[in-house]
Amino acid sequence: MKKLGTIIRTVALAAGLLGGAAQAQDIRIGYNADQSASAVAELGTAGRWGFEAAIEDLNKAGGVLGRKVVGVIRDDLGTPPKSIQNMTELMDNEGVVAVVGPANSGNALAWLHLPQQRKIPVVVPIATGTEVTTRYSKTPQNYLFRISMVDREQIALLAAYAVKSSKTKKIAIIGDTTGYGQGGIKDATEILALHGVKPVAVEKFGPKDTDMTSQLAKIRDAGADTVIVYAIADGSAHTLKSMEKIGYLPTTLGSWGNLSSLLPRIAGPKLSEHIILAASTTEDSNARTKSLGERVRQRFPTMTTFACAAQAYDAVILLAAAMKAAGTTDGEKVAVALEGIDGVQGVIKTYNKPFSKTDHEGLTVADFYLARWKGGVVGRYEDAVTKALTPADLKK
Q1: Which residue(s) pair with 378 in the sheet?
Q2: Using alpha carbons only, how large is the chain's radius of gyration in Å?
Q3: Is residue 42's pLDDT more than 70?
Q4: Which one, of 51, 100, 108, 98, lies nearest residue 78 by Cα?
Q5: CB-CB contact of 348 with 311 (8 Å)
Q6: For the sheet containing 69-75, what is the strand order?
Q7: Which residues of 241-279 are buried (b: 16+ CB within 10 A; e: fewer)?
Q8: How far apart are the C-alpha atoms of 119 and 216, rounded to whole Å?
């Protein structure tokens, strides 16, 4: 019966019975990410507007393969069941030929098997879990690609800075108990080991916890002068407040999830400036990022997570380039084409062979830099340590 239902839907789509005759001609690309419910909703919303800006630009230039591109938006509410439902609807009912999303790594890991089975390319613009692009890397064709800051890559940058900046080489790690936080702790521990450093303390806290003073007291008593925090913005904000409460403000490093305005809203503008973040791009990076930032702010005036908009924009542009290279929207051929595209101009950078058969990460640690909140906005952060970092330091 399930197979019969799929056949009926396919025939209906071809006949234009689901969504009108124009649907058969349009190239439909799905966007599935939290835009309203969890702590990463701000990231998903920024991604959505970057996604739509790219589609606008493609259509102004004549579309793709002579066809109009249509974005089909879904809010997954930050939950795996809803995200799975959205993916099923996008692929089976909406006839999308590719998907951009999600924001939450846990949601991605819950539905990776669906586009893999249906041979529909996905470019992840926000979620950073290391396994997202590697789970199917040993299959004949992996359909999961990413333009985002994979956890292990950004931790490579944070760890390099920690090792270089720490006077005592006493570095501690604290993270939340979600899969995101625990994956970050694991990666940070392994990467520090590549530098010959063992953390003097590793602590964790629940995703709803607001008082981390006991964990931080242990870290302080272990003599750590540098702390890597792996949590999304609200957890990091409460960690900073707990540091301030016990009078302990070591060098503090965190992931790009701290780009969310939750950080200054909870920690306060001044305290939020204490944490140094990994970032893929900021609005002040180049003329293209500046222009996109101005466009997105017309729809999302309070945006702080610009990197998500830029990454989603580039995800769409790369999919379009692959469709043009393949001469078709067929998922298998587009996935193969993604592994071979070259010289594609995005807003973050020019993508020169961003993917290969064995590596589906379009951004690497070499593309990342450190950033910091200052005066309510996020900008590039540089000091003597960042200037001294070399490619050899970025062990991963």
Answers
A1: 373
A2: 21
A3: yes
A4: 108
A5: yes
A6: 69-75, 27-33, 98-100, 122-124, 144-146
A7: bbbeeeebebbbbbbbbbbbbbbbebbeeebbbbbbbbb
A8: 47
Domains delineated in the chain: 2-149+284-363 (3.40.50.2300), 152-279+369-393 (3.40.50.2300)
Distance between CA 201 and CA 42 in Å, rounded? 32
Number of H helices, E strands in the chain: 15, 14
* Cα–Cα distance for residue pair 326/123, rounded to 1 Å: 17
Side chain identity, residue 136 = Y
Q: What's the rounded mean pLDDT across residues 261-273?
A: 93
**HEC profile of 314-343:** HHHHHHHHHHHHHCCCCHHHHHHHHCCCCC
Torsion angle of alpha carbons 279, 285, 290, 295, nearest 10°? Answer: -20
Is the pLDDT confidence value at 69 over 50?
A: yes
The answer on pLDDT for 378 being more than 90 is no
Classify residue 179 by its DSSP letter: H
pLDDT at 147 exceeding the cut of 90: yes
- Cβ atoms within 10 A of the Cβ of 154, count? 29
Note the residue count of the chain.
Answer: 396
Q: Find out whether 254 and 184 touch, Cβ atoms under 8 Å.
A: no
* Model-wide pTM > 0.85: no
What average pLDDT does range 58-75 have in this prediction?
A: 97
Alpha helices of 17-97 — where are they, by DSSP H? 41-60, 80-92
Residue with structure tokens 């520090």?
Answer: 192
The stretch 230-257 carries a mean pLDDT of 95
Q: Which is nearest to 282 in space by CA: 149, 169, 183, 108?
A: 149
> From the centroid of its chain, how far is CA 321?
21
Q: Is the pLDDT of residue 175 over 50?
A: yes
Q: Is 21 exposed, middle or buried (0-12, 13-18, 19+ CB in 10 A)?
A: exposed
